[in-house]
Amino acid sequence: MFTNQKLKQLIIPLVIEQILAVLVGMADIMMVSSVSEAAVSGVSLVDSISILIINIFAALATGGAVVAAQYLGRREEEQACFSAKQLILCTTAISAVIMVMFLIFGRQLIALIFGKVDPEVLASAQTYLFITSMSYPFIALYNSCAALYRAMGNSRISMVTSLIMNSLNIVGNAILIYGLGMGVEGAAIPTLISRIVCAVLIVVMLRHRQDQIRLDSYFHLGFDWTMIKRILQIGIPNGLENGMFQIGKILVQSLVAMFGTASIAANAVANNFASMEVIPAAAIGLGLVTVVGQCVGAGKIEEARYYTKKLMKWAYMASIALNVCILLGANVLLKLYNLSPETLDIAFKLLFIHGFFVMVIWPVSFTLPNALRAANDARFTMSVSIASMWICRIGLSYVFGLVFELGVVGVWLAMICDWFVRSAFFAVRFRGDRWTRRRLIEG
């Protein structure tokens, strides 16, 4: 069903899109840092919440993409289009409710999640949250449409629109922060505008009549609970998994704060590189949703297995090539941050630990489960991921970090244990046949 050329056309734009997201995120923080420490702190607090919310939207979008891809595999374009409408209605409604909650109770939510913070930081966080929360329906709509394009095997559209969105954000930040001195508002307003522009743009493009999935009308839309249930069968477990993962990261970050300034700084720097180290495997994971979804929808289970194994090989080759380069240049790269000798030593250890085990086990832990999700085995991946997160990543972080006095290095070793545990379950599941019996669409 997929030639090498088609696979490359699907995956390469996804890799570029992931790179853009990481680089723009780093540039965004650098610009905000020119305002004040309170501004950076306030924005970072809100970003931790926003990442959680956006991951929920992305999970719902994945549910819709799996359903649409399976219909395309069965060559039922009309049903694929109908599922697209239901996905857009569902995500827009849910995101609108979340937006209203944040607009009304934003201050209370920040205080509830983070406790007492400096008044200046609280003011910055409030301002940033109020403005950016208005963009939630638009980023949810964008994620849904981008996922639908990927379900068609067209990831170029999401890459281009992502480039537009990120460019608008960076240019807007530069004008409002540096040019007009608007502070936190100068960081929030471009985020809102860029998400609105790209949501409108990608929805308009989805009207294209030659696309397999398209919106034939903006007005003749109505909820179909049977179709929405199919979408949520993937979306809810995936959303819970992503949500618990982000909550776990917040808890682990609070533990890292106990180990001192050097550990906090080293952890932050290493996390920047960690995002880069997994880009190829993460992008291939997104592509697996399309490939396996269409194969399973067509009833071609052996092809689904074949392409999963093939793309996993690509994920490993790309991960090894990238991480060997990063590790060889680690000393030079870390010196760009002007760290103290103690912080530099810790950051190098974390970077080496993460990079080495990305090459060994990360694709099985995080790329492979997308193949299971595409076959509607999302409950299994959710159960394994949540259990492994709480027992290994969080539980062992306290054991290694505090009891064994390994500090932040112990936290990262606990994370690696989490990877090994979940990868063992996912590998065994994939080798069996239970995951192939859970199709959303009965053949």
TrEMBL record:
Name the CDD domains for this protein. MATE_like_8 (cd13134)
- GO CC, one annotated term: plasma membrane
Q: Which UniProt keywords are listed?
A: Antiport, Cell membrane, Ion transport, Membrane, Transmembrane, Transmembrane helix, Transport
Residue intervals passing through the bilayer: 12-32, 52-72, 84-105, 125-145, 157-181, 187-206, 250-270, 282-302, 314-334, 346-368
Q: Where in the cell is it found?
A: Cell membrane
**Which InterPro entries does the entry mention?**
MATE_fam (IPR002528), MATE_MdtK (IPR050222), MdtK-like (IPR048279)
Spell out the molecular function terms from Gene Ontology: antiporter activity; xenobiotic transmembrane transporter activity
An individual GO BP term: monoatomic ion transport
Q: What is its main location?
A: membrane
According to its record, how does it sit in the membrane? Multi-pass membrane protein
- Signal peptide range equals none
Q: Which NCBIfam families match?
A: matE (TIGR00797)
Which family does the similarity line name?
A: Belongs to the multi antimicrobial extrusion (MATE) (TC 2.A.66.1) family.
What is known about what this protein does?
Multidrug efflux pump.
**Can you say what this protein is called?**
Probable multidrug resistance protein NorM
Give the originating organism.
Answer: Holdemania filiformis
